[in-house]
Design a protein that fits this description.
- With 241 residues, the protein is an alpha/beta fold.
- The chain is built from eleven helices and eight strands.
- The protein has one domain: Rossmann fold.
- The protein has helices at residues 40-43, 46-55, 67-72, 79-105, 118-129, 147-150, 156-161, 163-166, 173-178, 195-207, 225-239; strands at 2-9, 14-21, 26-31, 59-64, 111-116, 134-140, 182-187, 212-216.
- Helix 2 (46-55) packs parallel to helix 11.
- The protein is globular.
- The two termini are 21 Å apart.
- The relative contact order is 0.14.
Amino acid sequence: MKVTDRWYSHRLGSDITVARWGTFGAPVLIFPTAGGDAEEVERHKLVAHLQPLIDAGRAKVYSCDSVAGRALMDSDYSSAQRFLLFNRFEQAVAEEVVPAIHSDCGGPLPVVVSGSSIGAFNSLAMICRYPHLFNAAVCMSGTYRIEKFAGNGFSDDLYFASPLHFLPGLDGPALELLRRRMIILASGSGQWEDIGESWAVANLLGSKRIPNRVDDWGPRYDHDWPTWWQMLPSYLDDLLP
């Protein structure tokens, strides 16, 4: 059973849609790829591959529009506007989407976050920036240096939105909490994949003593949905009660 909700986000200056599949289980928030909407994961059959976990009452799957990711594909946005939107998108997820998930679940349950490509970037950013909201991240075929897509330049918005920028200076209670979380960095090494991006993130996480694991699925796995059909059910089967 799918349920959708839509509201206007003042942080984003636009509407945002959240879709849900399932009625019981641990909440799993999946980010779409760059310009995807909340139902992209259903159209590309990822939800169908998660159906056994949903039917067993182990997973309650959510997805939201990739509002910031769309800006990467729109030439009307400047670099500064794109970085601003990524920063505000992460704030909107933490302060609007996650509270909506908690309300739907009847309480503040920890959320597993996941995504592919730019969705993997969003997943990494959310758990590193808001470790009190998420207990694990499954980052698949990740692209983690958004500045190479968003344009040249640097701003405070890029710093706060990008884990590769803010993690080196992270300290105190937020870092201590993040050290009790798990981040999985999974990638194939087939067409259009670059597992070097995952290793760069792993090295940074390791330097901060944040639990993580890089999994190379090998050359048979490309940067495409069939790879993620295999990956995500396998990892969620291990992570969920």
